[in-house]
Specification:
YefM-like fold; YefM-like_sf; Antitoxin_Phd/YefM; 3 strands; three-stranded mixed beta sheet; about 80 residues; alpha+beta
């Protein structure tokens, strides 16, 4: 995904234009030469947030599975004897 960077001054002077452009590609904003913010379309934001939440749920489930196996590992070993 392409990312177009503009200075904070450019953004302030042309906010409407950059809001329109952000519907197509994310707009990065630099302040004092440092990349500081990204403006993106709300649909893209929601898609990324959903992916993040899905990955977090998967990680929690994996951790619970591993914890369950570790907790009962000694029991499984005893039963296997």
């Amino acid at each position: 995904m392409d990312l177009k960077f503009v200075t904070s001054t450019e953004f302030q002077n042309n906010a409407g234009r950059f809001l329109d452009e952000a519907r197509k590609i994310p707009i990065g904003i630099q302040k004092h030469g440092h990349k500081s913010h990204v403006l993106l379309d709300i649909d893209e934001y929601n898609r990324l947030k959903s992916m993040d939440e899905t990955n977090a749920r998967k990680a929690k489930l994996d951790a619970l599975k591993n914890e369950s196996f570790e907790r009962f590992d000694d029991v499984y070993k005893e039963l296997a004897k």
